[in-house]
Amino acid sequence: MKKSMKLLSGVFALSLGLFAAPTLRAQDKIADTQIQEEVAKALSNKRFSAVQSNVKNGMVTLTGSVDVYSVKEDADHRVHRQKGVTAVRNMIEVSSSSKLSDTELRDKLAEKLSYDRVGYGTTAFNSFTIGVQDGVVTLGGVAYGPTDKDSAISVVSNYPGVKDVVDNIEVAPTSPMDDRIRLDVARAVYGFPSLNKYAIDPAKPIRITVISGNVTLTGVVNNQADKDAAGIRANSVGGVFKVTNSLQVAGQKQD
């Protein structure tokens, strides 16, 4: 008798599940509708006027076009913050009137980055690399701090013609010892008579990056003598473990 009751209760529960299934699917559809409404509100700014969205099972697909890459990223972030969104498929295209070649775009971005955050006292301690292929920009190198990194990414993301940004920038770890070495190397290098001229333009200094006492010099100098002098001066600073002299000599072909 007990076995029969258990069997009947199991069948009854199963039948409830079968009848309840359509209700759950209806609720999912309602949820997607609600998500669609919230996404539409999030993208109501005129910057997203050419962006369309579609929601299915909580996944939002974004299509359309924007003027600059930063707007594409902003749309992505706004949608991700909406309740009920499980994933975002960002297929927005960056359509720009810019006709710059990859080489021209790289040079323009390098110039912009060289003047970024001038006046904050950390410019000489940032060393970024830039690669561009089919409008996709890859940023590398070392930033003095998170703010410097974020600022560099923002500069690139807002530049016309940039279709995507790959962030490979390393942030130097916080270290009082490294901070002391940075300042001492800067004084040693810029205080040397033949190297003082590189401090005139704050956007084009001899760049000094320090990680765990290891110093790397980057930038462009006028001649081999200046490159050698900078390396010698950096090596003279107490606490420096190693100096990698990656300074380029103007007009000299790089390996």
Automatic annotation (TrEMBL):
InterPro entries: BON_dom, Lipoprotein_DolP. The keyword Protein transport does not apply. Residues 27-96, 101-173, 177-251 form the BON domain. Gene3D superfamilies: 3.30.1340.30. Coiled coil: none annotated. Keywords: Signal. Residues 1-20 form the signal peptide. PROSITE patterns: BON. The keyword Signal applies. It holds the Pfam family BON. This is Transport-associated protein. It comes from Terriglobus saanensis (strain ATCC BAA-1853 / DSM 23119 / SP1PR4).
